[in-house]
Design brief:
This protein is mostly helical and 546 residues long. The chain contains 19 helices and no strands.
């Protein structure tokens, strides 16, 4: 007689939990879908364009001797990964776009993971979700499920793009499976980092460091024969070992599947052992001395918030361009011995690789992407601080919004220039060590030449801050990421020349091999100034986000 009400109550409770969990999952899906759509379209579009370009330009041009020479060159392997199945359109596509696409999806996954976990706790929105029947662990599991579905959709889009362009199904599926594994690995790394530290910026930095470490380990494994075993310890190396369109190995993919499982398990255990709003590594409630350095002015406060992320970006960019500088002499020697590769690279949009200055110019054209993304992420962090109400005490002071936002933009712009200076200095240091003919002034000129394109991202982010603050990161990344993709598409499809003017990359001269295009530089800076002015106007007129 007394058991029926208990069962009914328990059944109702389970239904309420299931209903709440479904609503939370839909909430996370809505926060994820736009970014996943953008990343999926970019990854699939890049793969389809390169596969089509191969069939139009490279088919039949690569013989066995040339491929062996390419595969045996350590500099090529370090920079671009091991060349496998380059005589196949799918294999060539994986070699040229595999690592960039994996970095794109990995960075998106870890940023989204930290935003949906630690970011929700920083803003206090997680308190509302956890005030009901759901536990923090339940919320974390739903974040992982949503990110898994998004990663699967992105991988499926890439596989479909490769199939539509006529590549072999087995290779497309192996490549897509590897991409899914890499994306989920760094999604899980972001989720775990959010449990370890108590600030979203620190969690993001920890996850990005893991991604950079994995990429660096892959470079060492590919370039140093004695360390080839290290490929089994990094997601990037495991996808290369799978060899899509060549051997189509499954074992490396099974090892790759272990990475997200272990990281997610560790995140669940860490989540169950911490309080909401705190991290495992700083769970102590002991007090520490206040750190008030650089808090005496608006400029000092902006500099203080920029120091750590700028140092992290400088370290990553500097390490990469130091490696590029060291490898210049080896790459030039390879291209002199195999001139046909220089011709094919020119057809793919990387001309002038036969000289140190031309090679540096090609590498610096890629520098615009991290420099522009740095600017976009810094302004996005400013917008997030506004949403989290961390800026409210400052805006309550007798301080004009114009001065406040312009100070942030100025410090970010100086950070962009600092990153470019680091890249130029490091590539020169590497070239000097390898005795490559690249002067210090030429290296700095080449790095500084791309500043106007990187600054476009700062202007676009400022515009979004004023008029569409929820889309700062996406709009800020559009000039560099979208412009690069547009350039690749236009070059691959032999589109009308007038369309190239819509890409900022078409206005870059190949400095230091060529003289700078001062007219284009001034025009790009004027556009940036106009975007900043419009963004500041919008920021002054709109209400604060809460």
């Amino acid at each position: 007689m007394t058991t029926t009400p208990v069962k009914t109550t328990r059944s109702r409770s389970e239904r309420e939990i299931a209903s709440t969990g479904g609503a939370v999952m839909r909430h996370f899906a809505r926060q994820t879908r736009r970014g996943a759509l953008f990343v999926g379209l970019a990854a699939a579009g890049m793969s389809a364009v390169v596969a089509g370009q191969y069939q139009a330009t490279f088919a039949g041009e690569l013989n066995g001797a040339a491929l062996r020479a390419l595969a045996e060159n350590p500099a090529i392997r370090i920079l671009f990964g091991p060349p496998v199945a380059l005589d196949d359109p799918g294999g060539f596509t994986v070699w040229r776009t595999g690592t960039p696409v994996q970095i794109l999806t990995g960075v998106w996954a870890l940023l989204t993971a930290t935003r949906l976990t630690r970011g929700e706790e920083d803003t206090g929105r997680a308190d509302l979700l956890l005030a009901g029947r759901l536990r923090a662990v339940d919320q974390l599991r739903r974040v992982v499920v949503v990110l898994g579905a998004a990663a699967a959709a992105i991988a499926a889009a890439v596989a479909l793009a490769l199939l539509v362009t006529g590549t072999r199904p087995a290779g497309a599926l192996v490549h897509a499976a590897g991409l899914f594994g890499v994306t989920m690995t760094f999604a899980a790394a972001g989720v775990l980092a959010a449990q370890l530290v108590s600030a979203r910026s620190a969690a993001t930095g920890l996850a990005v460091a893991a991604l950079g470490g994995g990429l660096f380990l892959r470079m060492l494994a590919d370039g140093v024969g004695a360390l080839s075993w290290a490929s089994w310890g990094t997601p990037f190396g495991l996808t290369a070992l799978a060899a899509p369109y060549a051997d189509d190995r499954i074992t490396p993919l099974l090892v790759l599947a272990v990475f997200p499982v272990l990281l997610t398990t560790a995140a669940v255990l860490a989540c169950s052992r911490r309080d909401v709003g705190r991290g495992v590594l700083n769970a102590s409630s002991g007090r520490r001395r206040p750190r008030v350095r650089l808090l005496g002015s608006v400029t000092g406060f902006a500099v203080r918030r920029a120091i750590r992320p700028t140092a992290a970006w400088s370290l990553a960019i500097g390490a990469y361009f130091l490696l590029v500088g060291v490898l210049i002499a080896s790459v030039l020697r390879f291209l002199r011995e195999n001139p046909r590769f220089a011709e094919l690279a020119s057809a793919a949009g990387f001309g002038g690789l036969g000289t140190a200055e031309g090679f540096a110019a090609s590498m610096f054209s890629l520098l615009t992407i991290p420099a522009g993304l740095y600017a976009a992420t810094r302004i996005a962090a400013f917008a997030a601080a506004e949403t989290d109400r961390r800026l409210t005490p400052l805006l309550a002071l007798p301080l004009s919004r114009h001065r406040f936002v312009l100070t942030e933009l100025l410090v970010t712009g100086l950070g962009v220039l600092g990153l470019l200076a680091v890249a130029g200095s490091m590539i020169w240091c590497g070239a000097t060590v390898a005795d490559a003919p690249l002067s210090f002034t030429a290296a700095l000129a080449g790095a500084g030449n791309v500043a106007p394109v990187a600054m476009l991202s700062l202007g676009a982010a400022a515009l979004a801050l004023g008029w569409a603050p929820r889309a700062v990161a996406a709009v800020g990344a559009l000039p560099v990421a979208g412009g690069f993709l547009l350039t690749v598409i236009l070059q691959s499809t032999h589109a009308p020349e007038w369309l190239t003017y819509f890409s900022p990359y078409s206005h870059l001269a190949a400095v230091p091999e060529e003289a700078p295009d001062w007219t284009a530089t001034v025009l790009l800076l004027l556009v940036t100034g106009a975007l900043v002015a419009l963004g500041v106007l919008g920021y002054h007129r709109r209400d604060l986000r809460t």
